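The data layer described in this paper is built around a simple, fixed record for each protein. Such a record has a labelled line for the sequence and another for the backbone structure tokens. For reference, a complete record is included directly beneath this paragraph.
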Amino acid sequence: MTYPDFGISLYGTLNTRYDVDVSDAEETLETFEASDEHAALLDIPAGSPVVRIRRDASDTQGRIVEHAVDLFAASRIRFTLKATGYVRLSAAG
């Protein structure tokens, strides 16, 4: 079995190995209190704040090529966002 090159991003791998061009992605970030199951998986107390990120990425034909749901203990995560050029920021979406 050949393992992927972990130095290449997912989107880079999709492009170079499978000729898939990711054209856009939408991510939703939300916070909530950890259930007993989530707390056990994250090794945190139940009821602790957690952050969930849901991501769907599409190729140039509009096909979903990535669907991910990531869960993080809020005390162990930091987000850095950078925007360049014309950017419309809105809390309303």
User: Anything to note?
Assistant: The chain is about 15% helix and 35% strand. The helical segments are 10-18, 36-42. The domain at 21-75 is CATH 3.40.1410.10 (Chorismate lyase).
